[in-house]
Design a protein that fits this description.
Beta-Lactamase; about 700 residues; Alpha-Beta Plaits; eight-stranded mixed barrel
Length: about 700
Amino acid sequence: LHSVLTIVQDVTRRHVASAALAEEERRLRTVLDTLGEGVVMRDRSGKVILSNAAAARIFALSDAEMASFTLDKPLVHFLREDGDPFPPQELPSMRTLADGEGHSAVQGVVRHDGTVRWLWAHSKPILGAEGTPTAVVTSIADITRLREAETRLRLADKAIDHSADAIMVTTAEGQILRVNPAFTRVTGYTAEEVIGRTPALLRSGRHDATFYAAMWESVRRTGTWQGDIWNRRKDGSIFAERLSISAVRNTTGRLSHYVAVFSDVTEARVQEARFAHMAQHDSLTGLANRSLMEDRLLQAVRRADRSSRPLALLFLDLDRFKEINDTLGHAVGDALLKAVAVRLLACVRASDSVGRQAGDEFLILLPELEDPRQAGQVAGKIVAELAAPFTIDDHQIHTSFSIGIALFPTDAGDAETLRQHADTALYHAKAGGRNTYRYFTETMNADTRRRHESEQQLRVALAAGTLRMSYQPLRQMNDGRIIAMEAQCHWHDTRFGDMTPARFGDIAGDSALLIALDGWALETACREAARWHAHGATGVRVAVNLSLTALRSEALPATIKASLEAAGLPPSQLELEVLEAMLRDTESRLGDNLAQLKALGVRLVIDHFGSDQNTLTRLGQLGIDRLKIDRSFLADPDATSGNTGIVRTFVELGRNLGIEVVADGVDTDTQQSHVLAAGCSVGQGALLGPPMNAEEALLRLTAAPGINGK
């Protein structure tokens, strides 16, 4: 080797350029990885040659998986916007490689873990020297949350538009932004007519500024308000709405909107008012009932006590009403009571109250009198007003009122004493010849003393065994067979004559005495029924009426059981008659007692059924065996289309509930025919057998074996 050729090349620039290129790539990578959107570059074969961290995150792939990500062997699956598979060749990136144009699309991607993300993909080509695509760059935005939000918005829109409740959205300043179709149905206003206006266009004028101030104060303090409000429709009609207002705040906590949701509750309010009126007013006359009058009297006494202005309470009793009822029938009697109520209302001021106590008894409350003599003037006006006869169903009816007057605070210092003294004055008005009025005087309290004496005499009669029992049959009207005998207690008082159980309640004010009377009635009736059975009338039950006081007594089940055992009478042969009105009693003891007696085997009968609509719901709960239709439904024998239909309805009700139905008050052949036509085969009344004493009852049951229940 004679010589060496050495070639030296300066590569400094190359190294500098290479370092600069690497630095540029790092910068590009840094820029790409800081982007929130994914970036993917593919070559003409579709292989990924560049991607950023966001893309790997979106596809849930590692960097290595991204580098080997090809569309012919995809690591993920693509979906169209409608959920169908998205063919790879139709993806924006592949379309751009094919035609050199930019393309965009919404696409779903199913990742390897099964989760789905929704993407907005936009592709642009990288063109070579000849202008043909050599690569494609796709930017990818994850729009999953946006799409879910849009879905929720669409659902919310659909829910709002299809809501049965009216919905109104306003700005924080109160301008209406949106209403739904239900708003238009309720108010009559279309969306175009209200958008941009304020809810004040609905105001009815029934609420004052204080009401609205309190409402918005609640919204500001708690973020919501709920309640009933009266508003006005486009046609001017007033309606009640149940309204809920909610304040809406944005992400910064600043108030942005109000949402009001309401429904038309006018009919419900009308029904509530109707039911409230029914609960406080007499169904026949429309006057205030006993409960409402008691409340008004209490309020009036409190006001009078504060104002020192007297008030008067008038207790009225329609003279000889029972005679009219018995002679002309209950339908005429009811019509008379309604006509009397109209005349009474015409005799008083708008500030006065007129109420029906019960039957033919009325109360009139006259508050804030200037002079106590005004009460007498009103009473005199009533007496004069009733002097003119009533014309009812071609009958000229003459009647009158006996009126007792008591004054507060002259005659009494509380409402109950005032009522008692008015009742005492009424007694003296009746005793004084009727058709007149009397002011209460202290000397009238002698009547109270006499009643006390009668109570003592009743105690003596009970102890001496001078009370008597009568028995009235219940018959199968098809064959005349007696199926039961109703027992009723009677007492002959030396001062007042023959006294019925209804009168006992007035005299026996002491609960213990009432319970003792009922206990005697039970023992006597059970003993007598056992005697019937011993003489062969084994199919005849005995029915006993008890007072509400006894029915509430905790000792009642034990008392009845002891009476049955002492007489040797099976429980199934005793029927306990309960007045329908007693079922309105709210004390749980009554219901518990009836349940215990039913479990013992005693039969339960509802007496005067149909006189109180509020008890229908309790029939199934109490295990009732028999319904005794109130005799008022048989009072008018000519009302075949009305009363017969009502009786038929009761019979059908009893049949559906598995309860026997009895018609009370079958006093004529015509009434019996109508009752039978209505499907009721069991009856009680003068036609089917009057009340009889114990010996007569035994003779009747044993003398005719074919009809005595054997």
